[in-house]
Amino acid sequence: MNKKIVIIGASGHGKVVANIAKLNGYDEILFLDDDTSKKSCGRYPVAGTSKDIRQYKGNYDFIIAIGNNRIREKISDMLERENIKQTTLIHPSAVIDETVKIKEGTVIMANAAVNAEVQIGRSCIINTSSSIDHECILEDYVHVSPGVHVAGTVSIGKSTWIGIGATIINNLSICANCNIRAGAVVVKDVIESGDYQGVPAKKKE
Ligand SMILES: CC(C)(COP(=O)(O)OP(=O)(O)OC[C@H]1O[C@@H](n2cnc3c(N)ncnc32)[C@H](O)[C@@H]1OP(=O)(O)O)[C@@H](O)C(=O)NCCC(=O)NCCS
Asked: What is the pLDDT of residue 195?
């Protein structure tokens, strides 16, 4: 039987997600996007908008390919209201310890490494070549950008975004709704939501 998937979000990130879907054996891939000017995404068609999800329910798997954590949460809630369970997608080159727990809707990109006893929430993005070390807890809608290193026993709160190449040292807690900007090095707990940048990372007022 054909393996079919609907990807919500026809962007550059969507193209990367489509490739992971293909490598996971999906032979029918289509996109939905609320921007009606989009007709295709990479090699795949944009077949409608998020209002069209019901017509694919039951026959297709679903995944959201939207980098913005708030929008991803909104769409994820919409799928839940429709009783649509999202799939998870893991690139075959990612190295994931067998004890890792991953909730629905999460995508793990090429060459990511996720070590022992990590817990990853709903609709997270673990982007290309990032590493999440032992016993970290990532809450729902976290996005870890390419090349980020998260050391062991770190917790990252809901909807926090970690920008490209940032480093988080071990045994820290970062609260919900933070933007850790590109290249930042987080060396202390982050207890207040906001933007953090630099080495060591400081709140940007
Ligand atoms: C969050 C981000 C987009 C903000 O960029 P921005 O809108 O240009 O930032 P602001 O306008 O608030 O601030 C600009 C100032 O901060 C500096 N700045 C911006 N990002 C910085 C960073 N990551 N580290 C240090 N300084 C930074 C700029 O040089 C500028 O300084 P100036 O005023 O002295 O010229 C950017 O910091 C970032 O992290 N981008 C990474 C994107 C990424 O990870 N993409 C991968 C997605 S998969």
From this structure: 98
